[in-house]
Design brief:
heterodimer, A: about 100 residues, mainly alpha, Histone, subunit A, two-stranded antiparallel ribbon, 3 helices, about 5% strand, flat, B: about 475 residues, alpha/beta, Amidase signature (AS) enzymes
Chain lengths: ~100, ~475
């Protein structure tokens, strides 16, 4: 069967994922993704009608934390890792 | 005096320190000297922290001089995978996008180890964002297998495993999402523990796939792995999936008489061809040894494990595509442009990520996209439930499961250059991650000359005591 990912869908996915891809990368990924998706076809043969999707590694439910004030939020340290800031705010290039 | 670095285990280090055979500072210096001669060819470390290690070693020496009690890991030199945060040290996850990132806090496991006065020698190489099984995907060059420099050390925790195997650290921390601790342990002749999902906090681990990731030890022996696991486990308010579990005395002091009563399951699907001859004979040897200890075995079936690779390579990219969204040049990553915010995202991510993260982000975006979600992501979640059910059924009849870790021994650089063939290297390790259960990778024979062969002991959730205890029992045979 033909791969569900063609050049156009790949461009759309790269757009959604905010990743710049070169022409060369596009060609390579198309081929590789086709082979990986082809491998996934085996799952179609598995009867999953009697199970519910398992979303996580834990069976714990409703884990809450104390709703209390936290003094140390490490904000100052974290801010240092931002490329640029001004008056305690993050600085980013214009949106438009 | 020369400290015999290759002989050192956790207990031997502490004995040496307490008997005054060497000081912690001398030990650390000896390790750095060895690293300086050996690591240029192995390339296990991405960065070293000589100053911090010396400072912590002096603190341990002061405690000893003052006759203060020592924690079980005091003075133990560790290597730490570069996706685990240590405050003030680089944490690149072997990606260019985090080239300049310095951790602003300690991960939970590091806080725990610091509380015991453990020493951190440096951060180790890995596949970029833990995506790979060979360390060839590191943006900073591959690590080599200390047993054969033409071969990979496995991955993604290849640097940590190589550091321990080449005696450049007594023990190491790695992370295991689909085999990333166990497979490199098997390739390098070390011991690796994938911990039960939720037993060790993921806070401060650079996330790959949050429903699968677990931190664990790579060590010289099952006993060392048990000591480290006991030190780093436990509930952390910053990881809602973490829990204390119900671990008793036997985690550190296994009762070998009781171990004889464990029933060992042999999953027939894991032995049905596809194993390289060295692995086949290695597994048979491990099985004979386990039987010679007095344990009973029983054939079991895990019929859905064969779908593990497909299931995993849908779920993992889906989660990774969300987790790696934060590397956008604003919150993390070096910005590449001053034009618009949109350009900044595209350029930073386009240039900062290597091929494998890009491939998996695209794949993850695809399986989550409208029109394909049900056919891929939801389908994979359902198969995941079947894989987990298989283990639950099996554990009604048996206590532990014995299996291969890898289909082959360490392969040569470039041998698995096609992504799908690399994905298949994880075929025996992935099911434990999907099921959230613990598994120990152990060398079949420590004294074996040639490429190491490992085997796996898989246990019930939160029953690390069973697999680590059996591991220690097994090691007594080869000691």
């Amino acid at each position: 069967m033909s791969s569900p990912i063609n050049k156009k869908t790949l461009e759309h996915l790269a757009e959604l994922a905010r990743i710049e891809l070169t022409e060369k990368e596009q060609g390579k990924f198309l081929k590789e993704l086709e082979s990986v998706l082809g491998y996934f076809e085996e799952l179609k043969t598995v009867d999953t009608s009697k199970v519910l999707p398992l979303s996580g590694g834990t069976s714990s439910l409703n884990i809450f934390r104390e709703d209390s004030e936290r003094e140390n939020t490490n904000q100052g340290q974290g801010k240092k890792d931002f490329p640029s800031d001004e008056k305690g705010f993050l600085k980013v290039p214009p949106v438009f | 005096m020369t400290i015999p670095l290759r002989e050192l285990t956790i207990k031997k280090v502490q004995e040496g320190l307490l008997k005054g055979e060497f000081k912690a500072l001398e030990l650390v210096q000896a390790f750095f000297e060895h690293i300086q001669t050996r690591d240029p060819e192995i390339r296990a470390f991405l960065s070293l922290d000589q100053e911090g290690a010396a400072r912590e070693a002096e603190a341990v020496d002061l405690k000893i001089a003052g006759n203060e009690p020592l924690s079980p890991l005091a003075g133990i030199p560790f290597a730490v995978k570069d996706n685990i945060l240590i405050k003030g040290l680089p944490a690149t996850a072997a990606s260019k996008i985090l080239e300049d990132y310095v951790a602003s806090y300690d991960s939970f496991v590091i806080q725990k180890l610091k509380g015991q006065n453990a020493i951190f020698l440096g951060k180790t190489n890995m596949d970029e964002f833990a995506m790979g099984a060979s360390t060839e995907n590191s943006a900073y060059g591959a690590t080599k297998n200390p047993h054969d420099l033409e071969r990979v050390p496995g991955g993604s925790s290849g640097g940590s495993a190589a550091a321990v195997a080449a005696h450049m650290a007594v023990a190491a921390l790695g992370s295991d999402t689909g085999g990333s601790i166990r497979q490199p342990a098997a390739f390098t002749g070390t011991v690796g523990l994938k911990t039960t999902y939720g037993s060790v906090s993921r806070s401060g681990l650079i996330a790959l796939a949050s429903s699968l990731d677990q931190i664990g030890p790579i060590a010289k022996s099952a006993e060392d792995a048990a000591i480290i696991f006991n030190a780093i486990r436990g509930k952390d308010p910053l990881d809602a999936t973490s829990t204390d579990g119900n671990y008793g005395e036997e985690l550190l002091n296994p009762n070998f008489e009781k171990m004889k009563g464990l029933k060992v399951g042999l999953p027939k699907e894991y032995f049905e061809g596809g194993l390289a001859p060295e692995i086949q004979s290695g597994i048979e040897l491990a099985l004979r040894k386990v039987k010679s200890l007095g344990l009973k075995t029983q054939e079991i079936s895990l019929p859905h494990s064969k779908y593990g690779v497909s299931t995993y390579y849908i779920i993992l990219p889906a989660e990774a595509s969300a987790n790696l969204a934060r590397f956008d040049g604003v919150r993390y990553g070096s910005p590449k442009t001053e034009k618009t915010l949109r350009d900044l995202y595209f350029e930073t991510r386009g240039h900062g990520f290597g091929p494998e993260p890009k491939r998996r982000i695209i794949l993850g975006t695809f399986v989550l996209s409208s029109g394909y979600y049900d056919a891929y992501y939801e389908k994979a979640q359902r198969v995941r439930a079947l894989i987990k059910n298989d283990f639950e059924q099996a554990f009604k009849d048996v206590d532990v499961i014995l299996a291969p870790v890898t289909p082959t021994t360490a392969f040569k650089f470039g041998e698995n250059s096609d992504p799908l063939s690399m994905y298949l290297a994880d075929i025996f390790t992935i099911p434990a991650n999907l099921a959230g259960i613990p598994a120990l990778s152990l060398p079949v024979d420590k004294n074996f000359k040639g490429l190491p062969v490992g085997f796996q002991i898989i246990g019930r959730a939160f029953k690390e005591a069973d697999i680590l205890g059996l591991g220690q029992f097994y090691e007594r045979l080869t000691a």
